[in-house]
Design goal:
four-stranded antiparallel beta sheet; alpha+beta; 35% strand; Jelly Rolls; 5 helices
């Protein structure tokens, strides 16, 4: 039993060190099979509030790299309450739009003032956020963009499996080593073996001292 416990403990220590070195990603198949993966939505700001100035009868743009299928949210504000044209398109369509050719636009708002928008990119890559000013006065625009992504998160039980296996392995090994130590045998106390006959002279029966070689009464040797 002691050897089995020690063997299991050492195997768990090795497994724990391996998991810690390889990270918990290798446990994803096990976590998926046991339902220990949770999908969590996270929002990440990819373009904080940015101020742009659009010249009269002109346009300006910003490029933002987006992932396919990642929900993209944003807010557009035009200072002074005036309107501006707002469009989102990918790189190829932006080039067509600049040359006044037919263009596929992901999102279009010709008369935006304070505008909250949401769209989902059909492909990964750079997307152009275009601001078109048709008025004879310049306009200031503030744009904010963020994305919402679904991220697979491991259960803490799986995420820290390496540390857990290491600690359990150490405990099992310590228990096995301690239970394997031999306890010292108790010292045996020798009882006196002398009888009453040993305290008498075998010749005359007189009492004698064990240290005496000759009887003090008859003088004969006790040996």
């Amino acid at each position: 039993m002691r050897r089995l416990t020690l063997t299991i403990g050492l195997l768990m220590i090795i497994s724990g060190l391996y998991f810690m070195n390889q990270s918990a990603q290798i446990l994803y198949p096990l976590a998926g099979a046991t339902g220990l993966i949770f999908n969590v939505q996270t929002q990440m700001v990819i373009l904080p509030s940015t101020l742009l100035t659009v010249a009269p009868s002109n346009y300006t743009y910003l490029t933002v790299e987006l992932k396919k299928g990642a929900q993209t949210n944003g807010r557009l504000q035009v200072e002074g309450g005036s309107e501006i044209g707002f469009y989102i398109m990918n790189g190829g369509n932006f080039s067509e739009w600049r040359h006044s050719r037919p263009t596929v636009i992901e999102l279009a708002k010709p008369n935006a003032i304070n505008y909250n928008f949401t769209f989902v990119p059909r492909d990964s890559g750079n997307y152009y956020f275009v601001f078109s000013n048709q008025d004879p006065t310049r306009k200031n625009v503030v744009l904010t963009v963020s994305t919402v992504e679904t991220v697979a998160v491991l259960s803490p039980f799986i995420q820290y499996a390496g540390y857990e296996a290491l600690m359990i392995g150490l405990l099992l090994s310590i228990v096995a080593i301690k239970t394997g130590k031999r306890r010292p045998k108790p010292t045996k106390i020798l009882e006196p073996t002398n009888t009453l006959d040993d305290l008498k002279c075998k010749f005359c029966g007189a009492r004698k001292d064990l240290a005496e070689t000759f009887c003090s009464k008859c003088g004969r040797s006790h040996s």
